[in-house]
Structure formats: C-alpha cells, structure tokens
Amino acid sequence: MIDGETSLKSLMFVSESLEQLLGANGAKAVLRTAGQRAAISLIEMLPLSIIEEDAIQRSGAILVELGFIDEMRMPAPDSVQISGNTFLLEMKKMELHGLQSGCYYVIGLFEGFFNQMSGSTRKVIAVSPGESCEYWKLR
Predict the structure, then answer these.
(1) d(CA 3, CA 112)
(2) Strand order in the sheet with 133-138
(3) I want to staple 137 with a disulfide (CB 3.0 to 4.6 A). Which of 40, 63, 82, 126 is the partner?
(4) Contacts of 106 (CB under 8 A, 6+ apart)
(5) Are 55 and 117 in contact (CB under 8 A)?
(6) pLDDT tens digits, one per residue of 2-15
(7) Host H or E run for residue 125
(8) What confidence tier does 33 reach under pLDDT thresholds 50, 70, 90?
C-alpha cells in the first residue's frame, strides 16, 4: 500500500505537469473536477439531505481523517476556515512555490463531499490566505 506522503507528493508532481500542459487555470479545473469525482466515489452513498452546516462539518471531518487538512471551521454561513492545509505545507517543504492548482483537488474533494451529503450546488468561489489558515468563500 502507498503511504499518504508518497500519494501527496505524486499529486504535487501531477499538478505541476498539468500546469505546464494546460496552464494554471486548466490544471485547477481538472484537479477540482477530479476531487469532486473522487469524493463521490469515496463516500459511495446517495445524497443524505442533511442541512448544509452539518454537511460542511462532516466534509471537514473527512478531509481531516484523510490527512489533507488539520481543521475546518465555519465562521460564517458563506465561508469556511481551513487550518493546516497539508498540500500547501508540503509544497513549501518541496520548494514548489506558486503551484496552487493542487489545492483545487482538496477544494474539489470538499465540494464533492458537501454536495453529496447536502444536495446543495454551492461551490467555493474564492480562496483567501491568512496568517495560519485560509478562508474559502461559498456561493
């Protein structure tokens, strides 16, 4: 079995290659869609029709369990706060500065889990970095 660190590094190199082939926006779109599709196959269930706030909390818990983030909180109804984005931390370690497309895989996973559980069509429309966390705005 492949360990999580190896998988994460592989995803970074895939992201880098996609950016070279498709440009940053094309790579973001491909990885986001891949994350959404992976999320649906990972939870393998019909929409639960739970309220959006609960779906966000459960989606965050899954991302923590998978090792992509350390914590997700919801400071406002239209945003989530992400602490410990493992992808960003590993990018810094590997000195792959400017490679943001891989983060869209994590966003796609979140959207896939959230949409599958709540039936909502809301998406992450903006990502804002902070001091020790980042904020995802939803619409």
Answers:
(1) 23
(2) 71-76, 79-83, 133-138, 124-129
(3) 126
(4) 35, 63, 68, 69, 85, 87
(5) yes
(6) 677 788 888 888 99
(7) strand 124-129
(8) very high
